[in-house]
Design goal:
Rossmann fold; 5-stranded mixed beta sheet; 7 helices
Length: about 350
């Protein structure tokens, strides 16, 4: 199934049914009075968050959603049937925005959450409702009220406990494949991952969901490489795992670039707990790993965990730290409390 995290769709609620003009006509009743019923109410447009969906791809092929209108009234004081509500099912994490993307109309964060976005038109009055002491045989009636209509944008922000960040080719897909049930494409070139991926990680009896977004580049917060859309997928994460490629030209500059993009994007991303992992230490060797980790620790003021997504070195320490922050996001683990393999300590 292809991944799609944005879609523009047209919505229209049902129009109300018209009221009826009718008069009672029965044997032995020469002058029956008005008995035209009211029209039925139009159907609403209702959004519902459901399980089992993690993409908006269906909205690429079906873009117009129209609720049925109400039926017209009839004689014998019969009210027309109301139009059935149209239920639009979306993945958990979906936001509904106005056409200009300026206003969030609905934000679905839980399974079963519903929101009526457009209300159906009221049914028209039949001639029975116009009867009075001075108007005994009215022929007036009302057409039903028209339904509402609008274009909206759907934007999906994946729901995950942890978000995986880094520059292109930092080894995020390799790491996600190693620790979870995800099967993400891996390649020795930048931008191997083109769409966000989710994986369920199991560690020491604890399960959590991790989101891997495509690599970030300078200007991502402004949309470079459609990075602004990618960053939206980690807005709801409790903790960020920042992988830094130790074999890159300047690992410290790479870490700073991603941090700057988090700050420029806003939405509290820069304030989320962050775990820094120096990846590909199997290639670097102990001495070079230690030197680069020292520089990163000095620049970030945080612990730096050595990691190899290829061999699994340092994996347990990273997962332990992730679970600690997910389970207690308001009380992060103190960097100074880490020791041994849990933290790379600068040379004394």
């Amino acid at each position: 199934m292809h991944f799609l995290d944005q879609a523009k769709i047209y919505l229209r609620s049902g129009s109300g049914g018209p009221g009826a003009v009718s008069f009672r006509r029965e044997k032995y009743i020469a002058f029956g009075g008005p008995d035209g019923g009211n029209g039925g109410r139009g159907g609403d447009v209702v959004f519902e968050a459901v399980e089992g969906l993690n993409t908006l791809i269906d909205f690429r092929y079906t873009q117009h959603f129209k609720a049925p209108g109400g039926k017209g009234g009839a004689g014998k004081q019969l009210t027309g049937a109301g139009g059935k509500d149209l239920v639009v099912k979306v993945p958990v994490g979906t936001q509904v925005l106005t056409e200009d993307k300026e206003v969030v109309l609905a934000d679905f964060t839980k399974v079963g959450q519903t929101k009526t976005l457009l209300t159906g038109g009221q049914g028209g009055r039949g001639n029975l409702s116009y009867k009075s002491s001075t108007n005994r045989a009215p022929r007036q009636h009302q057409p039903g009220e028209p339904g509402e209509e609008m274009w909206v944008w759907l934007r999906l922000k994946l729901i995950a406990d942890a978000g995986l960040l880094g520059m292109p080719n930092a080894g995020k897909s390799t790491f996600l494949n190693l620790v979870s049930n995800a099967k993400t494409k891996v390649g020795d070139y930048p931008f191997t991952t083109l769409h966000p991926k989710l994986g369920v990680v199991e560690h020491k009896g604890r399960d959590f969901v991790m989101a891997d977004i495509p690599g970030l580049i300078a200007g991502a917060a402004e949309g470079a490489g459609i990075g602004d859309r990618f960053l939206g997928h980690v807005e709801r994460c409790q903790v960020l795992l920042h992988l830094v490629d130790g074999t890159g030209e300047d690992p410290v500059a790479a870490w700073k670039t991603v941090r700057e993009e988090l700050g420029d994007y806003g939405a509290g991303l820069a304030d989320k707990p962050e775990i820094i992992a120096l990846n590909k230490v199997d290639i670097l060797g102990p001495e070079l790993t230690e030197a680069i980790a020292d520089e990163l620790a000095e620049a970030s003021g945080s612990a730096v965990l050595p990691l190899s997504g290829a061999t699994g070195e340092g994996l347990e320490a990273v997962l332990d730290r992730l679970i600690g922050l997910i389970d207690a996001p308001a009380d992060p683990v103190d960097d100074e409390a880490l020791s041994g393999d849990d933290q790379w300590s600068p040379l004394s």
